[in-house]
Write a structure and sequence with these properties.
The model is unreliable at about 35-45, about 90-105 and about 140-160 (pLDDT under 50). The chain folds into three domains: about 5-90; about 100-130 and about 155-260, no CATH class; about 260-385, Alpha Horseshoe (Serine Threonine Protein Phosphatase 5, Tetratricopeptide repeat), CATH 1.25.40. It is built from 21 helices and two strands. Helix 7 (about 170-190) packs antiparallel against helix 8 (about 195-210), helix 11 (about 265-280) runs antiparallel to helix 12 and helix 20 (about 435-445) runs antiparallel to helix 21 (about 455-470). By secondary structure, the chain is mostly helical.
């Protein structure tokens, strides 16, 4: 079978002014930044050379995540969004695979494709074409994201409709179940219950979004409820270390929140996206997202507790960007916002738990970025002391950070005691990629001290090794 030369790709490489070798180098940089191990021939393949690019131009279609990575590299070079379809490769993942968020598919189609891929038995292969990409994080000026981030949800009069009549009771049910899933996530981590959540989002909630609404208020409330559930699916995927998938759910959630005109929810989703970008080291992107989260009605329409959450992540993004004075100012504003929150008030978005412990944790992360290690230790300690039992997963993550800060400060015995608490929490059945990373960090930081035969170091290191061995 004779392959047909990929003229679309050849034209784009010419527009970029790249030789085959330069294109390969840009691809490898983008792949490394996306934190992927997938190579051009599928999962765990090698990085590419100029011969790979030549074969692609000659008509060979790369597999795995390579098309999406190449689209990201070219988007950066050309300073505009380049989609996979523009490369001449067609949709990644093959038939039935997830639609790229750069496509013009509307949010309902994106939800359907994400759900099918997320729940499919051959999940790994179907998700191979999805990478975490800063190219799809164009921040909307309003609450509705641009079409290239996943398309627009059609108005109720334009969307395909089933015969399901949707009422406020249906909205209340979605919100109740979202809260239940969120409580499990907080106690046990993103690895517990996310499949059930995705199944519910993909079937029941999608049917409700296709339904008939008595009036506009119900439509908007349902889209807001669906947005919060999609956000939660993204957050649980993020906690499990599935960053590319999490990003897609976040973008979908932002899209639904924009259609619902739920401005504070849009701010929360942008805040979560900023949090993810910070953890992945994309500091410029994180600051752009965090600044968007506190703009206009996203901040002004939020409750004081919600404002505090938006503000403290904004402070951390400012600190990561080296803007010390602005970061301190943002921290103070977040503290004032939380102080203005009234006890006993039911927050409109109940998946966003935020109190003194959360503020202290994010303040500590901000102080770390500012180089104030002792201040970070103090705030991590405050978070540990004030964290409730309902938030075991986040408690474990905080213990990991606190122990690392204590170790960096030369307080080995304190760090071992703190990490002992982390391992106690993990033995309660927490399934969290972020918490597992904390245990891996324990082993790495204690490894240089094993030869000293310090009893506490030996005990904690052996516990960490036993825990990690049980995972494999």
């Amino acid at each position: 079978m004779t392959r047909e030369r990929n003229e679309q790709l050849a034209r784009l490489l010419g527009e970029a002014g790249w030789s085959r070798a330069q294109a390969a180098s840009a691809f490898n940089r983008a792949a490394a930044e996306s934190r992927r191990t997938d190579g051009p021939c599928g999962p765990c393949g090698p990085l590419i050379g100029r011969s790979h690019v030549s074969m692609w131009v000659a008509g060979t279609r790369p597999s795995g995540s390579a098309p999406a990575v190449l689209a990201l590299a070219l988007s950066r070079r050309l300073k505009r969004l380049v989609t996979v379809s523009e490369l001449g490769f067609g949709p990644p993942g093959g038939p039935g695979g997830p639609a790229p968020l750069e496509s013009p598919a509307d949010a309902l189609a994106v939800l359907a494709d994400l759900g099918r891929a997320d729940l499919h038995p051959d999940r790994r292969n179907l998700l191979a074409g999805i990478v975490y990409s800063t190219a799809v994080l164009a921040v909307p000026t309003g609450d509705r994201p641009p079409p290239q981030a996943g398309g627009l949800l059609p108005h109720a009069a334009e969307r395909p409709s089933n015969h399901l009549r949707v009422v406020q009771g249906d909205v209340a049910t979605v919100r109740e179940l979202t809260l239940a899933f969120s409580a499990v996530d907080q106690r046990r981590g993103g690895g517990h219950g996310r499949t059930a959540l995705v199944q519910y989002l993909h079937t029941d909630v999608r049917d409700l979004l296709h339904g008939r609404y008595a009036h506009e208020r119900v439509r908007r409330d349902m889209e807001s409820a669906a947005a919060e559930l999609s956000y939660l699916s993204g957050w649980m995927a993020f906690d499990s270390g599935e960053n590319a998938l999490a990003q897609r759910y976040f973008v979908l959630a932002l899209q639904l929140a924009g259609q619902a005109q739920d401005h504070p929810l849009g701010g929360h989703i942008l805040r979560a996206m900023a949090h993810q970008a910070l953890d992945l080291g994309h500091f410029d992107t994180a600051l752009t997202l965090a600044e968007a989260s506190v703009q206009d009605r996203r901040y002004l329409d939020a409750t004081p507790r919600e404002r505090a959450l938006l503000g403290v992540v904004h402070a951390r993004a400012l600190a990561a960007a080296g803007r010390t004075r602005s970061a301190v100012k943002a921290l103070l504003r977040a503290e004032n916002d939380l102080a203005a929150a009234e006890e006993g008030v039911v927050e409109p978005h109940r998946t966003f738990f935020f109190g003194e412990a959360s503020l202290a944790h994010e303040t500590a992360r901000t102080l770390e970025a500012l180089g104030d290690r002792k201040g970070a230790i103090r705030e991590f300690g405050r978070s540990v002391r004030t964290r409730g039992a309902a938030f075991r997963r986040t408690h474990a993550v905080t213990l990991g950070h606190l122990g690392a800060a204590q170790m960096a400060d030369g307080r080995v015995e304190d760090a071992c005691a703190t990490w002992g608490g982390l391992l106690d929490s993990m033995e309660e059945g927490i399934q969290s990629g972020r918490a597992e990373q904390a245990v891996l960090q324990v082993r790495r930081l204690l490894s240089p001290l094993r030869h000293r035969r310090i009893a506490s170091v030996t005990a904690v290191a052996e516990r960490a090794n036993r825990h990690l061995a049980r995972l494999h």
